[in-house]
Protein backbone atom coordinates (compact mmCIF):
# COMPACT_ATOMS: atom_id res chain seq x y z
CA UNK A 1 0.00 0.00 0.00
CA UNK A 2 1.54 3.23 -1.04
CA UNK A 3 1.23 5.74 1.73
CA UNK A 4 2.73 8.83 0.20
CA UNK A 5 4.54 10.17 -2.85
CA UNK A 6 6.54 13.37 -2.99
CA UNK A 7 8.39 15.44 -5.56
CA UNK A 8 11.24 17.54 -4.19
CA UNK A 9 13.00 20.20 -6.21
CA UNK A 10 16.69 20.60 -6.71
CA UNK A 11 17.07 22.96 -3.80
CA UNK A 12 15.21 20.50 -1.59
CA UNK A 13 12.04 22.54 -1.78
CA UNK A 14 8.83 20.48 -1.89
CA UNK A 15 7.01 20.62 -5.19
CA UNK A 16 4.28 18.07 -4.64
CA UNK A 17 3.35 15.94 -1.64
CA UNK A 18 0.36 13.65 -1.72
CA UNK A 19 -0.64 11.07 0.86
CA UNK A 20 -2.96 8.20 0.10
CA UNK A 21 -4.11 7.00 3.49
CA UNK A 22 -6.76 8.67 5.57
CA UNK A 23 -5.61 7.67 9.00
CA UNK A 24 -1.96 8.61 9.05
CA UNK A 25 -0.80 11.94 10.20
CA UNK A 26 0.25 14.04 7.22
CA UNK A 27 2.91 15.75 9.29
CA UNK A 28 4.60 12.47 10.09
CA UNK A 29 4.77 11.67 6.39
CA UNK A 30 6.25 15.07 5.62
CA UNK A 31 8.84 14.39 8.28
CA UNK A 32 9.72 11.02 6.79
CA UNK A 33 10.09 12.54 3.33
CA UNK A 34 12.29 15.28 4.75
CA UNK A 35 14.58 12.81 6.46
CA UNK A 36 14.91 10.78 3.30
CA UNK A 37 16.38 13.81 1.51
CA UNK A 38 19.48 13.50 3.65
CA UNK A 39 19.87 9.91 2.60
CA UNK A 40 19.54 10.90 -1.05
CA UNK A 41 22.25 13.53 -0.70
CA UNK A 42 24.50 11.08 1.03
CA UNK A 43 24.03 8.53 -1.75
CA UNK A 44 24.73 11.10 -4.43
CA UNK A 45 27.85 12.53 -2.85
CA UNK A 46 29.49 9.33 -1.67
CA UNK A 47 28.75 6.68 -4.23
CA UNK A 48 29.35 3.15 -3.06
CA UNK A 49 31.89 1.52 -5.28
CA UNK A 50 29.86 -1.64 -5.62
CA UNK A 51 26.53 0.10 -5.60
CA UNK A 52 24.73 1.92 -8.37
CA UNK A 53 26.83 3.98 -10.75
CA UNK A 54 27.35 7.63 -10.04
CA UNK A 55 24.84 8.69 -12.62
CA UNK A 56 22.06 6.18 -12.11
CA UNK A 57 18.60 7.65 -11.62
CA UNK A 58 16.90 4.94 -9.57
CA UNK A 59 18.33 5.01 -6.05
CA UNK A 60 16.46 2.04 -4.66
CA UNK A 61 15.46 1.47 -1.07
CA UNK A 62 16.72 4.47 0.88
CA UNK A 63 15.95 3.31 4.39
CA UNK A 64 13.26 1.52 6.38
CA UNK A 65 11.53 3.36 9.22
CA UNK A 66 8.90 1.96 11.60
CA UNK A 67 6.73 -0.04 9.26
CA UNK A 68 7.43 2.07 6.17
CA UNK A 69 9.90 1.63 3.38
CA UNK A 70 11.19 4.66 1.50
CA UNK A 71 12.33 4.51 -2.13
CA UNK A 72 14.10 7.27 -3.99
CA UNK A 73 14.62 8.33 -7.61
CA UNK A 74 16.74 11.17 -8.87
CA UNK A 75 16.21 12.85 -12.23
CA UNK A 76 18.74 14.61 -14.38
CA UNK A 77 17.81 18.01 -13.01
CA UNK A 78 18.33 16.99 -9.38
CA UNK A 79 14.60 16.67 -8.83
CA UNK A 80 13.88 13.83 -6.43
CA UNK A 81 10.88 11.53 -6.29
CA UNK A 82 10.22 9.89 -2.92
CA UNK A 83 7.90 6.94 -2.44
CA UNK A 84 6.76 5.79 1.00
CA UNK A 85 5.07 2.40 1.19
CA UNK A 86 3.95 -0.09 3.82
CA UNK A 87 4.24 -3.17 1.64
CA UNK A 88 6.55 -5.82 2.89
CA UNK A 89 7.18 -7.71 -0.32
CA UNK A 90 7.79 -5.06 -2.95
CA UNK A 91 9.57 -6.20 -6.07
CA UNK A 92 12.33 -3.98 -7.41
CA UNK A 93 10.89 -4.10 -10.91
CA UNK A 94 7.55 -2.82 -9.64
CA UNK A 95 9.10 0.20 -8.01
CA UNK A 96 11.18 0.97 -11.09
CA UNK A 97 8.09 0.74 -13.24
CA UNK A 98 6.23 3.02 -10.86
CA UNK A 99 8.97 5.63 -10.99
CA UNK A 100 9.13 5.45 -14.75
CA UNK A 101 5.46 6.28 -15.08
CA UNK A 102 5.71 8.87 -12.38
CA UNK A 103 8.58 10.49 -14.25
CA UNK A 104 6.48 10.59 -17.42
CA UNK A 105 3.65 12.33 -15.55
CA UNK A 106 6.12 14.74 -14.01
CA UNK A 107 7.67 15.63 -17.38
CA UNK A 108 4.21 16.34 -18.77
CA UNK A 109 3.38 18.56 -15.82
CA UNK A 110 6.61 20.53 -16.14
CA UNK A 111 6.19 20.99 -19.91
CA UNK A 112 3.24 23.20 -19.13
CA UNK A 113 4.35 26.70 -20.20
CA UNK A 114 2.44 28.20 -17.30
CA UNK A 115 4.28 26.14 -14.76
CA UNK A 116 7.08 28.04 -13.05
CA UNK A 117 9.98 25.75 -12.27
CA UNK A 118 10.59 25.84 -8.55
CA UNK A 119 6.99 26.48 -7.61
CA UNK A 120 4.56 23.80 -6.46
CA UNK A 121 2.89 21.68 -9.10
CA UNK A 122 -0.76 22.69 -9.12
CA UNK A 123 -1.94 20.76 -12.14
CA UNK A 124 -5.09 18.75 -11.51
CA UNK A 125 -4.24 16.41 -14.38
CA UNK A 126 -0.96 15.57 -12.72
CA UNK A 127 -2.75 14.76 -9.46
CA UNK A 128 -5.19 12.48 -11.27
CA UNK A 129 -2.46 10.68 -13.15
CA UNK A 130 -0.51 10.15 -9.96
CA UNK A 131 -3.59 8.67 -8.26
CA UNK A 132 -4.06 6.30 -11.19
CA UNK A 133 -0.46 5.17 -11.08
CA UNK A 134 -0.62 4.67 -7.32
CA UNK A 135 -3.79 2.60 -7.56
CA UNK A 136 -2.36 0.36 -10.24
CA UNK A 137 0.84 -0.12 -8.28
CA UNK A 138 -1.15 -1.59 -5.42
CA UNK A 139 -2.95 -4.01 -7.72
CA UNK A 140 0.07 -5.27 -9.64
CA UNK A 141 2.06 -6.12 -6.56
CA UNK A 142 -0.89 -7.80 -4.87
CA UNK A 143 -1.12 -10.36 -7.65
CA UNK B 1 11.01 18.47 -34.50
CA UNK B 2 11.27 20.80 -37.46
CA UNK B 3 11.98 19.46 -40.89
CA UNK B 4 10.54 18.08 -44.04
CA UNK B 5 8.61 14.86 -43.61
CA UNK B 6 8.48 12.46 -46.52
CA UNK B 7 5.57 10.02 -46.56
CA UNK B 8 5.65 6.78 -48.48
CA UNK B 9 2.77 6.63 -50.92
CA UNK B 10 0.48 3.75 -50.05
CA UNK B 11 -2.00 2.56 -52.64
CA UNK B 12 -4.58 1.62 -50.07
CA UNK B 13 -5.07 3.90 -47.12
CA UNK B 14 -5.80 0.91 -44.92
CA UNK B 15 -2.29 -0.38 -45.53
CA UNK B 16 -0.68 2.64 -43.95
CA UNK B 17 0.87 1.84 -40.61
CA UNK B 18 -0.61 3.51 -37.57
CA UNK B 19 1.55 6.49 -36.82
CA UNK B 20 2.78 7.59 -33.45
CA UNK B 21 1.72 11.06 -34.36
CA UNK B 22 3.82 13.59 -36.25
CA UNK B 23 7.06 14.36 -34.51
CA UNK B 24 7.68 17.33 -36.69
CA UNK B 25 6.32 20.83 -36.81
CA UNK B 26 6.13 22.73 -40.07
CA UNK B 27 8.99 25.15 -40.56
CA UNK B 28 6.75 27.96 -41.76
CA UNK B 29 4.51 27.71 -38.70
CA UNK B 30 7.51 28.00 -36.47
CA UNK B 31 8.97 30.87 -38.51
CA UNK B 32 5.72 32.82 -38.16
CA UNK B 33 5.56 32.18 -34.45
CA UNK B 34 9.17 33.17 -33.95
CA UNK B 35 8.81 36.34 -35.96
CA UNK B 36 5.81 37.30 -33.84
CA UNK B 37 7.81 36.60 -30.70
CA UNK B 38 10.59 38.90 -31.88
CA UNK B 39 8.20 41.62 -32.97
CA UNK B 40 6.27 41.49 -29.71
CA UNK B 41 9.44 41.82 -27.69
CA UNK B 42 10.65 44.61 -29.92
CA UNK B 43 7.66 46.76 -28.99
CA UNK B 44 8.28 46.23 -25.31
CA UNK B 45 11.91 47.25 -25.02
CA UNK B 46 14.03 50.30 -25.76
CA UNK B 47 17.37 48.85 -26.61
CA UNK B 48 19.01 45.85 -28.21
CA UNK B 49 20.54 44.42 -25.07
CA UNK B 50 17.14 44.18 -23.44
CA UNK B 51 15.68 42.51 -26.55
CA UNK B 52 18.44 39.93 -26.57
CA UNK B 53 17.90 39.27 -22.89
CA UNK B 54 14.18 38.70 -23.39
CA UNK B 55 14.71 36.25 -26.23
CA UNK B 56 17.24 34.45 -24.10
CA UNK B 57 14.81 34.19 -21.21
CA UNK B 58 12.20 32.75 -23.52
CA UNK B 59 14.75 30.20 -24.69
CA UNK B 60 15.73 29.39 -21.10
CA UNK B 61 12.22 28.18 -20.29
CA UNK B 62 12.26 25.98 -23.40
CA UNK B 63 15.67 24.58 -22.51
CA UNK B 64 14.66 23.56 -19.00
CA UNK B 65 11.67 21.63 -20.30
CA UNK B 66 13.57 20.08 -23.19
CA UNK B 67 16.12 18.70 -20.73
CA UNK B 68 13.44 17.02 -18.59
CA UNK B 69 11.72 15.62 -21.63
CA UNK B 70 14.83 14.27 -23.34
CA UNK B 71 16.27 12.74 -20.23
CA UNK B 72 13.11 10.85 -19.66
CA UNK B 73 12.53 9.89 -23.25
CA UNK B 74 15.89 9.09 -24.76
CA UNK B 75 18.54 8.80 -22.17
CA UNK B 76 17.25 5.84 -20.22
CA UNK B 77 18.45 6.32 -16.71
CA UNK B 78 21.76 8.07 -16.97
CA UNK B 79 22.59 11.44 -15.53
CA UNK B 80 25.35 13.53 -17.10
CA UNK B 81 27.98 14.57 -14.60
CA UNK B 82 30.94 15.31 -16.88
CA UNK B 83 31.47 18.43 -18.89
CA UNK B 84 32.20 16.70 -22.17
CA UNK B 85 29.22 14.46 -21.60
CA UNK B 86 26.76 17.30 -21.25
CA UNK B 87 28.32 19.22 -24.15
CA UNK B 88 28.02 16.29 -26.52
CA UNK B 89 24.47 15.75 -25.27
CA UNK B 90 23.59 19.34 -26.20
CA UNK B 91 25.49 19.18 -29.46
CA UNK B 92 23.87 16.02 -30.74
CA UNK B 93 20.71 14.96 -28.92
CA UNK B 94 19.21 18.36 -28.18
CA UNK B 95 20.02 19.72 -31.63
CA UNK B 96 18.62 16.61 -33.27
CA UNK B 97 15.32 16.91 -31.44
CA UNK B 98 14.97 20.65 -31.96
CA UNK B 99 16.37 21.18 -35.44
CA UNK B 100 16.40 17.74 -37.02
CA UNK B 101 20.16 17.46 -37.36
CA UNK B 102 23.22 17.58 -35.14
CA UNK B 103 25.07 20.87 -34.75
CA UNK B 104 27.83 21.54 -37.26
CA UNK B 105 30.72 21.61 -34.87
CA UNK B 106 31.74 21.71 -31.25
CA UNK B 107 35.07 23.36 -30.40
CA UNK B 108 37.01 24.18 -27.31
CA UNK B 109 38.05 27.79 -26.98
CA UNK B 110 41.75 28.51 -27.22
CA UNK B 111 42.04 31.62 -25.11
CA UNK B 112 40.25 30.47 -21.96
CA UNK B 113 39.84 27.10 -20.32
CA UNK B 114 36.16 27.52 -19.69
CA UNK B 115 34.96 28.46 -23.15
CA UNK B 116 33.36 26.15 -25.67
CA UNK B 117 31.73 26.96 -28.98
CA UNK B 118 28.99 25.28 -30.95
CA UNK B 119 28.87 26.54 -34.52
CA UNK B 120 26.21 26.29 -37.11
CA UNK B 121 26.38 27.41 -40.71
CA UNK B 122 22.89 28.80 -40.51
CA UNK B 123 20.73 28.65 -37.42
CA UNK B 124 17.23 27.49 -38.21
CA UNK B 125 15.70 30.36 -36.29
CA UNK B 126 17.68 32.87 -38.32
CA UNK B 127 16.78 31.46 -41.69
CA UNK B 128 14.04 33.91 -42.51
CA UNK B 129 15.43 36.86 -40.58
CA UNK B 130 17.63 39.64 -41.86
CA UNK B 131 18.97 42.12 -39.36
CA UNK B 132 18.71 45.81 -40.35
CA UNK B 133 22.01 47.69 -40.36
CA UNK B 134 21.10 49.94 -37.47
CA UNK B 135 20.70 47.02 -35.08
CA UNK B 136 24.38 46.30 -35.17
CA UNK B 137 25.40 42.99 -33.72
CA UNK B 138 21.99 41.80 -32.63
CA UNK B 139 21.44 38.11 -33.27
CA UNK B 140 18.12 36.30 -32.96
CA UNK B 141 20.21 33.27 -32.13
CA UNK B 142 19.93 34.62 -28.59
CA UNK B 143 16.84 32.41 -28.41
CA UNK B 144 18.94 29.33 -29.10
CA UNK B 145 21.58 30.55 -26.67
CA UNK B 146 18.83 30.71 -24.07
CA UNK B 147 17.80 27.13 -24.82
CA UNK B 148 21.37 25.94 -24.35
CA UNK B 149 21.66 27.89 -21.12
CA UNK B 150 18.40 26.33 -19.87
CA UNK B 151 19.67 22.84 -20.59
CA UNK B 152 23.05 23.42 -18.96
CA UNK B 153 21.56 25.14 -15.93
CA UNK B 154 19.04 22.39 -15.35
CA UNK B 155 21.75 19.76 -15.55
CA UNK B 156 23.85 21.55 -12.94
CA UNK B 157 26.39 23.33 -15.16
CA UNK B 158 25.78 27.06 -14.74
CA UNK B 159 27.12 28.96 -17.71
CA UNK B 160 26.85 32.20 -19.65
CA UNK B 161 25.79 31.51 -23.22
CA UNK B 162 25.78 34.03 -26.05
CA UNK B 163 25.28 33.94 -29.80
CA UNK B 164 27.65 35.64 -32.23
CA UNK B 165 28.00 36.10 -35.94
CA UNK B 166 31.31 35.03 -37.37
CA UNK B 167 31.97 36.13 -40.95
CA UNK B 168 33.28 33.37 -43.16
CA UNK B 169 35.02 33.89 -46.50
CA UNK B 170 33.21 32.56 -49.46
CA UNK B 171 29.78 32.79 -47.83
CA UNK B 172 27.46 35.75 -47.92
CA UNK B 173 25.78 35.02 -44.64
CA UNK B 174 28.04 34.79 -41.63
CA UNK B 175 28.26 31.64 -39.59
CA UNK B 176 26.62 31.65 -36.16
CA UNK B 177 28.56 30.58 -33.10
CA UNK B 178 27.09 29.87 -29.70
CA UNK B 179 29.71 30.70 -27.10
CA UNK B 180 29.43 28.85 -23.80
CA UNK B 181 31.38 30.11 -20.82
CA UNK B 182 31.14 27.88 -17.80
CA UNK B 183 31.10 29.16 -14.24
CA UNK B 184 34.08 28.69 -11.92
CA UNK B 185 32.48 25.96 -9.85
CA UNK B 186 31.92 23.78 -12.89
CA UNK B 187 35.63 23.81 -13.69
CA UNK B 188 36.57 23.10 -10.08
CA UNK B 189 34.18 20.18 -9.96
CA UNK B 190 35.45 18.87 -13.26
CA UNK B 191 39.04 19.05 -12.03
CA UNK B 192 38.06 17.26 -8.84
CA UNK B 193 36.37 14.46 -10.74
CA UNK B 194 39.57 13.93 -12.62
From TrEMBL, chain A:
InterPro entries associated with the record: Longin-like_dom_sf, Sedlin, TRAPPC2L
Gene3D superfamilies, alphabetized: 3.30.450.70
The organism's place on the tree of life at top rank: Eukaryota
Classification via Pfam families: Sedlin_N
Entry similarity comment: Belongs to the TRAPP small subunits family. Sedlin subfamily.
Protein name from the UniProt record: Trafficking protein particle complex subunit 2-like protein
Organism listed in the record: Stylosanthes scabra
TrEMBL record, chain B:
Keywords: Endoplasmic reticulum, ER-Golgi transport, Golgi apparatus, Transport
Record's subcellular location: Endoplasmic reticulum; Golgi apparatus, cis-Golgi network
Origin superkingdom: Eukaryota
SUPFAM superfamilies according to UniProt: Ligand-binding domain in the NO signalling and Golgi transport
Record's subunit section: Part of the multisubunit TRAPP (transport protein particle) complex.
The protein's name: Trafficking protein particle complex subunit
Family designation: Belongs to the TRAPP small subunits family. BET3 subfamily.
Organism: Stylosanthes scabra
Cross-referenced InterPro entries: NO_sig/Golgi_transp_ligand-bd, TRAPP-I_su5, TRAPP_component
